[in-house]
Amino acid sequence: MIDTILSLVIWVPILAGVAVLATGSDKNAALARWIALAGALAGLIVAIPLVTGFDTGTSAMQFVEKAAWIPALNIHYHLGIDGISMPLILLNSFITVLVVIAGWQVIQDKVAQYMAAFLIMSGLINGVFASLDGILFYVFFEGMLIPLYLIVGVWGGPNRVYAAFKFFLYTLAGSLLMLVSMIYLYFQSGGSFDIQTWHATTLGMTAQTLMFFAFLLAFGVKVPMWPVHTWLPDAHVEAPTGGSVVLAAITLKVGAYGFLRFILPILPDASHELAWFVITLSLIAVAYIGLVALVQSDMKKLIAYSSIAHMGFVTLGFFMFNPLGVEGGLVQMVSHGFVSAALFLCIGVMYDRLHSRQIKDYGGLADKMPVFAAFFMLFAMANAGLPATSGFVGEFMVIMAATQVNFWFAFVAATTLILGAAYTLWMYKRVVFGTVTNPHVEEMHDVNAREILLLGVLAVSVLGMGLYPKPFTDVMHVSVIDLLAHVAQSKLP
Fold it and tell me: If we measure between CA atoms, which residue out of 83, 89, 100, 81 comes closest to residue 41?
């Protein structure tokens, strides 16, 4: 069983998605929903042994599977996880269940195709996090774009086709440069696509620098980093609620994961030499994008910009080159998965009732939807980095790490705690408090049992991680220490 867990984590959701597609038209929508829920739950259940059987005392890859795939090119179906990738697979499997439940009543058109897209994408994303072969990684990395493109392009808003094309073209352009770099690494490593072999490959500074920018564009677009972030607000605004949840909670993490699996270990000298460049982009994302979020009138756009600012903390932490910074970035990735998913679900709850995302169309929700207002308050506080919520832990760790490197890095990074509170609480105040001025708000009803389940599970996750983050940092610690020890060693010939 142990030898096939990662394959199950990848292929159970994908096969479940195929089974959902087999239900056909919307006449069988109820059956499609139940198969999708069963498939999502099965995907989460088969991932549980990754936690229960994980050895936190070693940085070696665990649950390894390897089989020949294209022998002529030495390409293998090679899977394995460490303390960096395991939490992300669990996060993805967890969020997939919530997304299926979130679309239960809302999606009435092409239900089977909608549910199948999420399940197939979930399996492909797990493949990204588990791949130890460069070409296998690339196949999963590109494959996950297809279902997300369809989710935005088919079930999105009025400008969905524009947003989907923009998202696809941005991410594809960066990915092609990554493929070129992988082919170069293949020849430099003696004909191997094995990622761990690449980690030990000696490269000149010129090659490292060129590949650094190639990988930076590929993964930076996904994060997304400033200034290649402009596709994200458009995609969020046009995507259905489930699409926004997965986009913010999971797919952004794929880009950040690439930094730790490719850029830092394969290109350590270039990473140290060009750290200032990434730190500058990260601080611009943290401070400038926070100011951009302040002037947004669309709730989805506001949370989309806040995601860019929060992900700036992740890349900032990675290039501090100390355990506190890297672990803080990883904790922030998981926390942002919980918080961003919750906020987009909250916006979805309001949109389902009023069909507007404009802040000015709301006001006085506390009287009409008190239970919802309480949930929304918790997630807004977590987004602002309130202590005892998960939003505080990662950001605090990164700020502390930045203090050890340069006080001014920490000073600029800490402005996000002020800006985050400003734009999040401004939105919350306008939407939830005050008098009801829109007659349609008078007709809004509080959250139902399904919505309470979704928001309740995320509330427990946000508070649990905020109050006791140790289980998360314990899983990551040894892998992070080993990574930093590896990055500290020069790979120059």
Answer: 100
Segment 234-263 shows an average pLDDT of 86
- 321 alpha-carbon distance from chain centroid: 22
CA atoms of 428 and 423, how far apart (whole Å): 9
The answer to whether 344 touches 245, Cβ cutoff 8 Å, is yes
pLDDT of 354 reads 83
| 81 neighbors 118 (Cβ within 8 angstroms) | no
Rounded Cα distance, 311 and 321, in Å: 17
State the pLDDT confidence band at 1, using cuts at 50, 70 and 90: very low
pLDDT at 149: 85
Report the C-alpha gap between 170 and 160 in whole angstroms: 15
Q: What is the mean pLDDT of residues 59-88?
A: 89
Report the mean per-residue pLDDT for the chain.
Answer: 87
| Per-position DSSP letters for 49-111, written without gaps between them | HHHHT--TT--S-EEEEEEEEEGGGTEEEEEEE-TTTHHHHHHHHHHHHHHHHHTTTT--SSH
Say if CB 195 and CB 137 are below 8 A apart: yes
For residue range 437-490, list pLDDT tens digits in order. Answer: 778 877 788 888 888 999 999 999 999 999 999 988 999 999 999 999 888 876
Cβ-count burial of 225 within 10 angstroms (0-12 exposed, 13-18 middle, 19+ buried)? buried
Q: Which two tokens stand for residue 216?
A: 């930076």
Enter the tokens of residue 434.
């005050």
- What pLDDT does 377 receive? 92
